[in-house]
Automatic annotation (TrEMBL):
<keyword id="KW-0690">Ribosome biogenesis</keyword>
<dbReference type="GO" id="GO:0005730">
    <property type="term" value="C:nucleolus"/>
</dbReference>
<feature type="short sequence motif" description="Q motif">
    <location>
        <begin position="122"/>
        <end position="150"/>
    </location>
</feature>
<dbReference type="InterPro" id="IPR014014">
    <property type="entry name" value="RNA_helicase_DEAD_Q_motif"/>
</dbReference>
<keyword id="KW-0539">Nucleus</keyword>
<comment type="similarity">
    <text>Belongs to the DEAD box helicase family. DDX52/ROK1 subfamily.</text>
</comment>
<dbReference type="InterPro" id="IPR050079">
    <property type="entry name" value="DEAD_box_RNA_helicase"/>
</dbReference>
<dbReference type="Pfam" id="PF00270">
    <property type="entry name" value="DEAD"/>
</dbReference>
<dbReference type="Pfam" id="PF00271">
    <property type="entry name" value="Helicase_C"/>
</dbReference>
<dbReference type="GO" id="GO:0005829">
    <property type="term" value="C:cytosol"/>
</dbReference>
<dbReference type="InterPro" id="IPR001650">
    <property type="entry name" value="Helicase_C-like"/>
</dbReference>
<feature type="domain" description="Helicase ATP-binding">
    <location>
        <begin position="153"/>
        <end position="326"/>
    </location>
</feature>
<keyword id="KW-0347">Helicase</keyword>
<protein>
    <recommendedName>
        <fullName>RNA helicase</fullName>
        <ecNumber>3.6.4.13</ecNumber>
    </recommendedName>
</protein>
<dbReference type="InterPro" id="IPR014001">
    <property type="entry name" value="Helicase_ATP-bd"/>
</dbReference>
<dbReference type="GO" id="GO:0003723">
    <property type="term" value="F:RNA binding"/>
</dbReference>
<dbReference type="GO" id="GO:0003724">
    <property type="term" value="F:RNA helicase activity"/>
</dbReference>
Length: 562
């Protein structure tokens, strides 16, 4: 299976097309793959499927021990159930709940924590899961719950506040969307009853798509707050369109609140995705304003992320009421499906040489995401790689929304093989088939590292992450080494002996990235020639322009229709 098939439909590997050179460079010949590679790929898919099955179907030592306490009859029923619908068991006692948690690395803190569930059919019987939800779960192949779903869904269905920390790509979105939709039931004209906040527009859009999938066939109204939808909502209150679920970035929402075009007083489900980001300086004030506007006494709050530094957790706790805290695995760890590597690149030039080397030797298996620390550096690296003739594009905050959307779509469809990005793409975006993440510039924090590399190795699939470092980054290396160790990666002894950076140093780096030399290996004369060539092309285009501007009447009609 090609990685692009996982990224989305429509990927094509035409060998004689525009990117024939890339085919050679990347050695991308899926049709004539060597048998060992094919076997490895097949194993990958099996592993991916297994990921969603493991917890429910492979009794670990602790589950087996616990099964001893079940009566033979119940065991038989469970097995019959298992045979009938692919699930293993239902959980009805504290012992079973604890064993199930242990087997799935679910850690909980809080009072009267609801039992996890083991299969979607268990959920169906325990909480009378609505039939349209079960239908939609089946339709979109959500066959087995992931650990965070097993525990977070019952907690939210019991209307408890929740702080949930689970690895990247482990299905947190479904974990908060499903209980919300179950509770909202159907469309009502009371105005917004649920609100999901996410730090970036791209992630908000992705969550919107997931909510649409799960509410299919139910007529629930879902609104993604944009300039246009905010303008519609700014009409007189009686004319405002009544939506059930609102999804927004903090900035857009605060704007709408200040214009008094949005009323959040009926909201009873508030989800903060990438919650640690939302409690950081820069977002905190907006988050506060949103919390104040959600004035319903029945408000339930849920915070989700793959990372949650202790200081932020303390702050987040101040807004929660008797919350339950759930951690899957360990707190600051990366997904265990990612092979992480640290590569010493010497200096800035060394990084370019290293990435080119990776291309030449076939080590860069697309689709690949490359992270840099600034917009300037994203542009510069893009120019370098484009000049090498690679199929590459770039995404950052200076590109228009339309350009960003188009780039994301193209990357998903496999039309772009290498995507250079700033941290704006580091959180939440679900590119399931990314094979490799390169941290071209060393990340500014552990959280940034975990989220960046979390764009690969998602949904149980394996991925690879390579982080380049130079002497300038050496001081911060140990933080990343610790993440690698915690997530089960092999680390060389000398790295383990490094000193941990001081808190002060970590804070400094988070505020301001390391000063780096510009990205460029091309001699000056080369660049001048390139600029000259570009001028010639642009001038000749201008000369040809009048011929190209011939338009037909139907083109005009098209324009008007838009
Ligand atoms: N139970 C399930 N069965 C199969 N696929 C699932 C299941 N739950 C989620 N997925 C898929 O797994 C992928 C990752 O899910 P999601 O984007 O929610 O991860 P996440 O934990 O929010 O990651 P991040 O921390 O990076 O935001 C998605 O493509 C989603 O459709």
């Amino acid at each position: 299976m090609d990685a692009f098939r996982l990224l989305g439909a429509g990927a094509s590997f035409k060998k004689n097309g525009k990117f024939a050179r890339d085919h050679e460079l990347f050695n991308a010949q899926p049709a004539r793959r060597d048998p060992a590679e094919a076997a490895r790929a097949e194993k990958d898919i099996e592993r991916e499927l297994d990921f969603f099955h493991t917890a429910a179907t492979q009794p670990s030592a602790s589950v087996t021990a616990d099964e001893g306490s079940l009566s033979k009859k119940r065991k038989r029923n469970h097995n019959d159930d298992h045979a009938a619908n692919g699930s293993l068991t239902t959980i009805t006692t504290a012992e079973e709940a604890n064993a199930h948690r242990k087997a799935n690395r679910i850690k909980v803190t809080g009072t009267d924590v609801p039992y996890p569930f083991a299969s979607f059919s268990d959920l169906l019987s325990r909480f009378e899961l609505r039939s349209f939800l079960k239908r939609n779960l089946d339709k979109y192949n959500f066959n087995k719950p992931t650990p965070i779903q097993m525990q977070a869904i019952p907690i939210l269905l019991h209307k408890r506040d929740l702080l949930a920390i689970a690895p990247t790509g482990s299905g947190k979105t479904l974990a908060f969307v499903l209980p919300m939709v179950q509770d909202l039931k159907a469309h009502e004209s009371a105005g917004f009853r649920a609100l999901i906040i996410s730090p970036t527009r791209e992630l908000a859009q992705q969550i919107y798509n997931e909510v649409k999938k799960l509410t299919e066939g139910r007529g629930m109204k879902v609104c993604m707050l944009t300039k246009a939808t905010a303008a519609t909502q700014a009409q007189a209150p009686e004319l405002r369109q009544k939506f059930d679920i609102l999804i927004s970035t903090p900035l857009r929402l605060v704007h709408a609140l200040q214009q008094e075009s949005i009323d959040l007083s009926n909201v009873r489900h508030l989800i903060m995705d990438e919650a640690d980001k939302l409690f950081e300086l820069g977002f905190l004030e907006q988050t506060d304003e949103i919390l104040a506007a959600c004035s319903s006494p029945a408000l339930q709050k849920a915070l989700f992320s793959a990372t949650l530094p202790s200081s932020i957790e303390q702050l987040a706790n101040t807004v929660m009421k008797d919350p339950v805290r759930v951690i899957i695995g360990s707190k600051e760890a990366a997904a265990e499906t990612i092979d992480q590597k640290l590569v010493y690149a010497g200096n800035e030039q060394g990084k370019l040489i290293a990435i080119r080397n990776l291309v030449q030797t076939g080590g860069l298996k697309p689709p690949c995401l490359v992270f840099v620390q600034s917009i300037e550096r994203a542009k510069a690296l893009f120019h370098e790689l484009v000049y090498d003739g690679l199929n590459v594009d770039v995404i950052h905050g200076e590109r228009t929304k339309a350009q960003r959307d188009a780039v994301i779509d193209k990357f998903r469809e496999g039309q772009i093989w290498i995507l250079i990005a700033t941290d704006v793409m580091a959180r939440g975006i679900d590119f399931k088939g990314v094979n490799l993440v390169i941290n071209y510039d060393f990340p500014q924090s552990v959280q940034s590292y975990v989220h960046r590399i979390g764009r690969t190795g998602r949904a149980g699939r394996r991925g690879e992450a390579v982080t380049y470092f130079t002497k300038d980054d050496a001081e911060y290396l140990k933080s990343i080494v610790n993440v690698m160790r915690q997530s089960g990666c092999e680390v060389e002894d000398w790295l383990l002996k490094l000193k941990k950076p001081s808190q002060e140093a970590r804070k400094k780096l988070k505020k301001k990235p390391v000063d780096r030399r510009n990205i460029s290996t091309q001699p000056k004369v080369f660049k001048e020639k390139r600029a000259h060539k570009k001028d010639i092309i642009e001038n000749s285009k201008k000369k040809k322009a009048p011929q190209q501007e011939v338009v037909t009447a139907s083109d005009h009609e098209g324009d008007e229709a838009d």
